[in-house]
Amino acid sequence: MIRQEDTICAPATGSGGAVSVIRMSGSRSLEILTRIFYPADRSVDLLNKAGYSLIYGDIKGGEDIIDDVLVSIFRAPRSYTGEDSVEISCHASPYIIKKILELLVINGASTAAAGEFTRRAFINGRMDLSQAEAVADIIASTSKASHRIAINQMRGGFSEEIRNLRAELLNFASLIELELDFGEEDVEFADRNNLKDIVIRIKLIADKLASSFIAGNAIKKGIPVAIAGKPNSGKSTLLNALLMEERAIVSDIPGTTRDSIEETVHHDGIEYRFIDTAGLRETTDFIENLGIQKTYEKIKQASIVLFIDDVMDGPEIINRRIDALKEFLNPDQKLIIVINKTDKVSPGEISGIHEKILAGNKDVVVFISAKNKTGLDELRKSLGDSAITEKLNSNEVIISNIRHYEALRNVSESLGRVLEGLENSIPEDIIAIDIRQAIHYLGEITGEITSDEILGNIFKNFCIGK
Ligand code: GDP
Predict the structure, then answer these.
(1) 267 Cα to the center of ligand 1, angstroms
(2) From atom 10 of ligand 1, which residue's Cα is the shortest distance away?
């Protein structure tokens, strides 16, 4: 479907704002530009203009002046796509944008398909596939943590590691294949112990990267948090208090819609997403309802469970409820015990209750009054401590893309078979097949191995203009 010979155009900016950018890329970009763009400085020779120049002038449709614009010129291969490209910065009127695109098409450009600029960048070797995928992630990133993962990936952080591992395996595969060529003669070019070491090492790296996916995916999509507790314990009041403070923080940022912050809270660069809490809030009897599949399923989706209870119920009953809840949690889930309505008791009573709850639990206990909004900072801090922050603070590579995760799992499986083969003296030709498979899957991540189907799937999720 790729039309490398075509020159393509598309709006590159979303709606709103004062200025819009229209992108055009392909060998005819400058020639097409000359037909509609008239530099203010008549002496400018557009066709021979060097890359990275900025030119001011008018866009005209026949005699009609459409807009005065700034045009950036990029020369192959030093452009996003690797082709000659131009970017027209015009006024952000939907009419002007439409008109300029129309003029570009009339003069020989085609409209770009979704992700076509980035697809061309990949085809032309400007970035590998995992970097191209990171472009979409970086545009979609909503928190400091998700942004960090995306920007590391875009800058090629783990592509290089994958490429090196693949090169090592390739080297061994060719040595083994050379042995096979010699057939009957008993030669051994590939040192078996050496091969085993390499396979073990690469398998470990693949496993480690794959295991970072759960954390990476949670960070990318927001860490799922469930609020659970008996009716009237204050679940809605707490959620509203958290969301209201969130709104106060983000409402100054233009363009943030209420919808997108409806059930998310940011703290210290991480986004927390409250999962389908409405369902949990509706339950009539919390403990009984835990046994109901639907409630349980919702709690299961959470990385962090906020268990909220009424301080007036007393530590014995509260501890019993906590014990019941814990039966349903898996070891990876973090539990934060939130004791609410502290405005109803004296500080002295609180510390007594605190001790009794801590005696039965090693979990984090936070005392709040959702109504008076006290203790919320401490609660947010506990959320931060429960999130997977160790990984974020180090420079470790985190993957957040399910395609990479699946490929890494396949790499690990193939290498597992190689190890088994080496230990059980399986014939070389069989081992060689499994090594080739591992090489294949590693290549899928960076795009050294690819098919139109894989590319189509990746780029169809991009916007037009990306
Ligand atoms: P939910 O059923 O768990 O969602 O509980 P709600 O948030 O609807 O709260 C139930 C009742 O408890 C409401 O009347 C709230 O005003 C009240 N409530 C919630 N939090 C507090 C609190 O911190 N202190 C006091 N005194 N009342 C609270």
Answers:
(1) 24
(2) 232
